[in-house]
Write a structure and sequence with these properties.
It is a single chain. The protein is of the alpha/beta class. The chain has 2 domains: 2-140, Response regulator (Rossmann fold); 149-203, Arc Repressor Mutant, subunit A (Orthogonal Bundle). The chain contains 10 helices and 6 strands; from the N terminus they run βαβαβαβαβαβααααα. It has helices at 10-22, 35-44, 64-74, 89-97, 109-121, 129-141, 149-159, 164-171, 175-189, 194-203; strands at residues 2-6, 27-32, 49-52, 80-84, 102-105, 126-127. The longest helix has 15 residues, at 175-189. The protein is globular, with a radius of gyration of 17 Å.
Length: 211
């Protein structure tokens, strides 16, 4: 399998490349250190699998869900495995809805990435054990619908410092629509204040970690 890896930390890419190249079934054919470079690599390098971080710096695609949406639209047949630090159930549901085939926690990637690659090669999804347990528990405990992809997108952008008007301009929706999606997200989550919304976003892994 021809594999492209993407992460804005060089030591993470080194670890992934070392593991993948020791497998007789996989070969790293290109690397990217951000979303813009990833899009450039994919346009020039045929590959069978993308292994990427969720939140990386990079122009208009810096939001992870927006990046995945673009990838799914441009390369619908390319399987994607996320190696990520986020632990939120809502975010996991949203990325799975974008067609992601694997989610592997960064702190367990050495042990779980081989299983994820094998599963994806066989056309099966793979979700890290700790996140699979959280999804199962949430499904058992919650009767309400999770946030929609658009509501989640708005919450993520707010958590990363954008204003409602800036979000509206970037995603090409009206300010009133963004405000309604923000308010609906807060209603669904039972959150009444912006501070509470930011705390939820942080705890769900939506806010970018400082480098």
């Amino acid at each position: 399998m021809r594999v492209v890896i993407a992460d804005d930390h060089s030591f993470v890419r080194l670890g992934m490349r070392t593991f993948i190249n020791t497998s007789s079934q996989c070969e790293v054919v290109a690397e990217a250190d951000g979303v813009d470079s990833l899009m450039n690599v994919l346009s020039n390098t045929p590959c069978d699998l993308l292994i990427t971080d969720f939140s990386m710096p990079g122009g208009q695609q810096a939001d992870g869900l927006k990046m995945l949406n673009t990838l799914h639209r441009l390369y619908p047949a390319m399987p994607v495995i996320l190696v990520t630090m986020f632990t939120g159930v809502a975010t996991a549901r949203a990325v799975l809805a974008q067609g992601v085939m694997g989610i592997v926690a960064k702190n367990t990637s050495a042990s779980e990435l081989p299983a994820a690659i094998n599963a994806v090669r066989q056309g099966r999804r793979y979700i890290s054990e700790f996140l699979r347990e959280r999804l199962d528990n949430a499904d058992n405990q919650l009767g309400e619908s999770p946030l929609s992809v658009k509501e989640l997108e708005v919450v993520r952008m707010l958590a990363n410092g954008m204003t409602v008007s800036e979000i509206a301009q970037q995603v090409k929706r009206s300010v009133s629509t963004i405000s309604k999606q923000k308010n609906m997200a807060m209603l669904r989550l039972g959150i009444r204040t912006d501070v509470g919304l930011f705390a939820y976003a942080r705890d769900s892994g939506m806010a970018h970690s400082p480098h």
